[in-house]
Design brief:
Distance between the termini: 48 Å
Strand order of the largest sheet: 2-3-1-4-6-8-9
Number of domains: 3
Structural class: alpha/beta
Low-confidence stretches: 294-372
CATH class of the largest domain: Alpha Beta
Largest sheet: 7 strands, parallel
Oligomer: single chain
Strand content: 15-25%
Number of strands: 23
């Protein structure tokens, strides 16, 4: 691998990149305050940047990737003099170290990068393809076709699943896929391979890659995510030479040169899987020779003087990306999940965020943990029955004799309070539902109906959480208690049944798909405990699907795709009212210049059961 770095240094002696060449980095947000970006020509696009404070994990991936290309000083990037467009495509789900993005938004980001003049687009992310390239959405395929027409080179990570499996978009035609090479010269164990990569993928250094970390730190990371910007930087340097020597660039020729000149790799004894090498290991000198059609010549280091003194090959090291061994670095192991575009199906819509971290702040005023009073809750989840103690489990076991406890409780409703009724979110307990008062039996009957119906996927449970104690389950988890108001506002449904109810069977299947995406976004990406006013308004939007139907009919009829769902405090709220606006924003993934479309409806969450207020409003946004 040392030869690769020397070949890159040799190419850098000819050029550190031309400002006329633009590299678009489609990744997470970048900490542009890092010293390595001083003097770099970079602009930001895409999803609105979350604050760096408390979001360092979300910033870490994009910051590292961008520094490998554009870094100066302590981090010597591959092509620091090229222009850069940083497109933030990852939103924070609150659960992952790095964010996620859908294929629809990736298509939009690619078209946006082309519109902003990108010559090279690098994507250190992907969605694991179950069936290969056919898993790609038509929007994404058309975006790549637009790149081909526009003479733009797309470079994407092969993925870190360590198997003969491929990722979208790396496996799609016209894309240059990049696998990761270890320091020993063999493919990293985590680097993917597969037939789709055999003729359109190359290996590049992907172990202990030096890069920037948020907060001015320096880090080393592993994986295809960090091999990909190395290849993108090399491609940009080759384009820079083309531009200077010929006055034009030829992106397909550079892609072909990098693939055709790639060298065989060492398999570290694993000769059974020759496909791990893809087309081969990047040969920078070979690709440059093929592009220029001249023999390599002796080169000086004069161009490096154009940067600050810290950027020179000082410190006695002749390898620009292996500098500063004396730094205290936090070495991250490769992560199989960090290269996801989307964590689930390809039909996911590119929603961005549900109203910032301020949701928690606004809910603090009614939190019983601070004032001792009851807190209103409107929660969504799955309902289950659990035994209170091991002795209770054993006692019921003797009575049931193998029968289902649900059917037993149907005949013995008076014993419903002897078990826990647990509301869960994707298997995680969030409340123990504890009916109280003279109408408790009504709530128990309703909950029993819910758990007896195997087709029910989700329930809504409004109520009050006193915060004066919690219940310890047999699993050891401590869960707060939720007291519902005599069954009012408790509903159950399955996604299919709900869609059948609000969508005419003769209507376009596309509307049904968009509604399902909307529900999945709230159920999974925006899942919450329903305790703050914003969370209650959002959860109610999922149960009151008729308003969403009206919005999605109008937006999808115009060829638009959901970009974001936000919940904001209404300026129209009077004293004593809790009015919140649910705002849905849509974009055209194939026309970045087209105005975005916004829809807003109001939810009153003053009472334990939310209600809709007024009509849906719509407008266009720049």
């Amino acid at each position: 691998m040392k030869k690769i770095w020397l070949d890159i240094a040799s190419l850098q002696a000819e050029t550190l990149g031309e400002p006329a060449i633009c590299i678009a980095v489609l990744d997470g947000p970048v900490d542009l305050q890092h010293p390595c970006f001083i003097g770099a020509s970079l602009v930001c696009e895409g999803i609105a940047l979350p604050p760096l404070l408390d979001n360092e994990d979300l910033y870490s991936h994009g910051t590292h990737v961008a520094s490998v290309i554009f870094g100066r000083g302590a981090i010597n990037g591959i092509a620091p003099k090229c222009r850069g467009v940083l497109v933030n495509i990852f939103r924070d789900t609150g659960e992952r170290r790095e964010g996620v993005c859908s294929q629809s938004y990736l298509a939009y980001a690619i078209n946006l990068a082309v519109h902003r003049g990108a010559n090279v687009i690098t994507i250190s992310g992907g969605q694991l393809a179950r069936f290969g390239p056919e898993d790609a959405e038509p929007l994404l395929v058309r975006a790549l076709e637009n790149c081909a027409r526009s003479n733009v080179l797309i470079i994407a990570a092969a993925g870190n699943d360590g198997c003969a499996c491929v990722h979208i978009p790396a496996a799609l035609p016209g894309v240059l896929a990049v696998g990761a090479l270890s320091e020993s010269g063999s493919p990293l164990d985590s680097s993917n391979w597969g037939s789709a990569y055999r003729h359109q993928g190359i290996l590049a250094p992907g172990e202990n890659i030096l890069g920037a970390a948020p907060g001015g730190r320096i880090d080393r990371r592993n994986g295809t995510s960090f091999a990909t910007p190395i290849v993108a930087g090399v491609a940009a340097l080759l384009m820079s030479r083309q531009h200077v020597e010929r006055g034009k660039i030829d992106a397909p020729a550079i892609r072909a040169a990098l693939i055709e000149t790639s060298r065989p790799c060492r398999l570290a004894g694993d000769s059974r899987v020759s496909q791990k090498c893809m087309a081969g290991v990047i040969d920078v000198a070979g690709a440059e020779t093929l592009m220029t059609k001249v023999k390599p010549k002796e080169r000086g280091m004069s161009n490096l003087n154009d940067l600050s003194s810290e950027a020179k090959f000082g410190f006695g090291v002749q390898d620009p990306l292996l500098l500063n061994h004396n730094f205290s670095v936090d070495v991250h192991a490769s992560c199989n999940n960090e290269d996801l575009i989307s964590p689930s199906s390809a039909v996911q819509s590119p929603s961005v965020s549900v109203a910032d971290r301020s949701m928690e702040e606004e809910g603090a005023s009614e939190s019983c943990s601070t004032c001792g009073g009851p807190q209103i809750v409107y929660a969504l989840g799955e309902l289950s029955i659990e035994f209170k103690t091991e002795s209770s489990r054993a006692g019921f076991g003797q009575v049931l004799n193998g029968a289902d406890i649900r059917h037993y409780l149907r005949e013995h409703l008076d014993e419903a309070s002897t078990v826990y009724w647990v509301l869960k979110l994707d298997g995680t307990p969030i409340y123990v539902v504890n009916p109280a008062g003279p109408f408790a039996h009504v709530v128990y009957e309703k909950m029993l109906d819910f758990v007896l119906d195997d087709e029910i996927e989700r329930v809504s449970v409004p109520g009050y959480s006193t915060g004066r104690g919690s219940v310890t389950l047999l699993s050891g988890e401590e869960v707060p208690v939720l007291v519902p108001p005599a069954g009012r506002g408790m509903f159950s449904w399955s996604t299919k049944a709900l869609l059948d109810l609000v969508v005419d069977g003769n209507e376009d299947q596309a509307l049904r798909n968009h509604l399902e995406e909307f529900l999945n976004r709230i159920y999974h990406d925006f899942r919450n405990a329903g305790s703050s006013p914003r969370e209650r308004a959002l959860n109610f939007a999922a149960t009151n699907l008729f308003q969403a139907v009206d919005v999605l009919k109008r937006a999808t009829g115009e060829g638009r795709v959901l970009e974001s769902i936000r919940v904001e405090k209404s300026v129209l709220a009077r004293s004593g009212e809790d009015l919140y606006e649910v705002k849905m924003r849509f974009f055209d993934p194939e026309n970045v210049l087209r105005a975005k479309r916004a829809f807003r409806f109001t939810v009153d969450v003053s009472d334990v059961v939310p209600v809709s207020v007024g009509r849906v409003r719509a407008w266009s946004e720049a």
